[in-house]
Amino acid sequence: MNRRDFLTTATAASATFALAGCNDSNRQAIDYSKHPEKKSEDEVNGEAREGTLGYKKRVNINRNKKTVIKLATSWPAHFPIMGTGVEKFAQRVKDVSGGSLEIKLYPKNTLIPALAVFDAASSGQIDAFHSGPYYWKGKNSAFSLYSGLPFGFTAEEINSWVLFGGGLELWREQYAKYNLHPFMGGNTNIQMGGWFAKPINSLDDMKGLKMRIPGLGGEVLAKLGVNPVLLPAGEIYTSLERGVIDATEWVGPALDIKMGFYKVAPYYYSGWHEPGSILELTFNKYSWNKLAFEHQSIIEVASSEMNANMTYEFHAENIKAFKKLKELNINIYQFPKDVIEAGKKALKDVTTELSQKNSDFKKVYDSIENHLELSKEWSNASLRYFLNER
Q1: Per-residue pLDDT for 184 more than 80?
Q2: Domain count, the chain
């Protein structure tokens, strides 16, 4: 409220209190039918005016201003689900803000290389980015945990930990050291174990394999003798085709089938390394703090919508793509039991080692483990029973 409005309101209030002091018996009711209000142009045109029944006040303090946010992604333009999800988010922000807030998108390599968006946002070269936290484990090993954990959280469980189990507070505390402010920006849901050029019949078949796999999953497989490789999406197929790598994980049927991996690596395995991987929408902290509160609120709501929609879209598209896999006569395989058991042991070794080396990692992992143990008990009594009986 500006000074003039305050003075006007104060004067009106004083007059009201003064009238209230008069003798009630001397007051007469005012017959408003004898003093009809003149209709405004808006009311004549069918729109309710402020103070009248049906009026809905719209507050847009930034109506005459325009803020532009530069947001780079790690995905190609119009990339299914992840890329298009960010595009829908940008449009939603623009619509809800009445055009006062615009997010200008830069798909991978149009402004910033796919895996350089973290540094670009940290330094203020861009205002925000959309990517995956496990890509930055070289900055801090704890960051990989915000994407998820092998044999760990499902999409539903990790969302509950981030939003209601202390995960978001830890994430923002640790990202703040890099001048960043993160939000959840989607979830791939459970991912498949990957495409292999040759079948995996035992743990011995894993040894010496060159496999494109990021995050903690890569570190766990390294304990099994795999050589993990980090490659951007555009290089994976040709690397498989030329034998530069022997296997790759990507996401799930919906995106994997579009990449054509089945043509060069026909053995497709169910997964346990990424049961519910978070994607992130992260802002430069200075850019975030200088936004109007109204714009911050719009982004918070729109990012929450994107997080949910992307999760559900992955599921919807995966079930359709899974049917197509069958039509292409692609079989789904499960890793041998000795690979599973070795993977669980390797996970324990990796998390113990990283906890000893990095207090940030230990802090986050302890929080995850506490939440996960509680969730397992409930899931075993409810979801596991239901799925077994369905």
Answers
A1: yes
A2: 1
